[in-house]
Specification:
homodimer, about 220 residues, alpha/beta, Arc Repressor Mutant, subunit A, Rossmann fold, 2 domains, 7-stranded mixed beta sheet, 3-stranded antiparallel beta sheet, 10 helices, 10 strands, DNA-binding, CoA-bd (chains A, B), DNA-binding (chains A, B), cytoplasm (chains A, B)
Chain lengths: ~220, ~220
DNA sequence: TAGATTGTTAATCGATTAACAATC
DNA sequence: TAGATTGTTAATCGATTAACAATC
């Protein structure tokens, strides 16, 4: 059972993966000690914000010294739940589904991809990095019997809500949604959207309206 | 020359694509009139926020009536710069690059994909939906001579900063970055990141720490 | 010990929500 | 005209930044 941190704002939570990335980088460079000021210079957050953020989860630093990079990295990993393994499936095995299946770091970070699904007979039976593509009709039983926590939706948007309903019925806890719609699911289900066209449209906006805008 | 809206906060800008999506949907359903209250119910923003957001760009509504869906949709399109065409290239033609190249809606929204690039001789010479993959050594000249506005980086992270430097030198205005690093570019260059693993880690966090968290 | 830097409280800033007068 | 709903100002809420006492 992981410790539960309540009342942490999403603003803070969304910064955590960035801390994770930069601490990893420091560790790779064999930097073992860092102050909030130095991190601030690297990451572009204020030192104050960094100390506030980290103190939501515990006092990982030491006055007069700073933070031990190795320890802090380990803590962030734990906070992010990256020390745990998650059964994962991808629904929709077209270009995007395959691209994500091929993304090696999935496995490395504990996202254990066990199957892909599709309706296309040409794809069913194939394997992507040794992970099989099954007929989508087998999805619900597969999820039931294989302890799947996360469903990744890579289907065209027309099918996304239907797939989401089936994932919920099959007792998945979280959905990583790449379809350009907002899924309707019970509120205990975690949905994280990657709305690619939304992101692209921001570029388009800034290209036209930028006059020294700042963006994150 | 598009009108420049200054001092619009990124919080507002990032909501614009969602308005665009919902208005399109209404139009498809042949709904021609909508109030901020009804939009609020659909989209999950408060009616007050919707009116505030829209009034940053002009008074598109009418007291006692609401908003004309068709007109508002058109305005949002213009604000987002979706009535304009952008020369676009993809760097890195692996699974992800190909997935994005195959994403039909790119063209539909004015993102005119003219070339992909790669270092892999097996890929160079291929075509994805009729768009050729060239040797990456030809990138800078191609961008120079073809009026390219946007570079999409789909390379492994080791090469991303180098590619970004070259894109900047070749006078691209914006970078859509899928590599899991924060690019260092001059401040007049627009960078929009899609950090997939950051997004996935949020799921992992919520799976472990969720006790009725709210997320967007 | 003196210097450095955290943890934490207080102040500020910005974004969201509420309220209501204007007006279609 | 009466009813509805916007545009906009004011109030509230939350997140970021500043400041500093605690302490390594």
């Amino acid at each position: 059972m992981a410790k539960k941190f309540k009342d942490i704002s999403m603003a803070v939570i969304r910064r955590l993966p960035k801390y994770h990335r930069y601490l990893k980088e420091l560790l790779d460079k064999e930097v073992y000690r860092i102050s909030s000021k130095e991190l601030s210079n690297m990451m572009g957050f204020t030192a104050s914000q960094i100390r506030q953020d980290l103190n939501n989860f515990g006092g990982f630093g030491q006055q007069g010294y700073g933070y031990n990079v190795e320890e802090l990295y380990g803590e962030i990993k734990k906070i992010l739940g990256l020390n745990i393994s998650y059964g994962t499936v991808i629904i929709g095995s077209g270009n995007l589904g395959q691209a994500i299946a091929n993304y090696t770091n999935l496995q490395k970070h504990g996202f254990n991809l066990l199957a892909l699904f599709d309706t296309n007979p040409k794809l069913i039976g194939m394997r992507i990095r040794d992970v099989p593509i099954y007929d989508i009709d087998e999805m619900q039983e597969f999820i039931d019997t294989n302890n799947i926590n996360i469903g990744i939706i890579c289907t065209p948007k027309e099918f996304a809500q239907d797939i989401a309903n089936k994932l919920v019925k099959a007792n998945v806890s979280a959905i990583w949604n790449f379809a350009p719609i907002d899924l309707k699911v019970p509120e205990n289900i975690i949905v994280e959207n990657v709305h690619l066209s939304d992101s692209l449209f921001i570029i388009s906006y800034l290209l036209n309206n930028q006059e020294k805008e700042q963006w994150d």
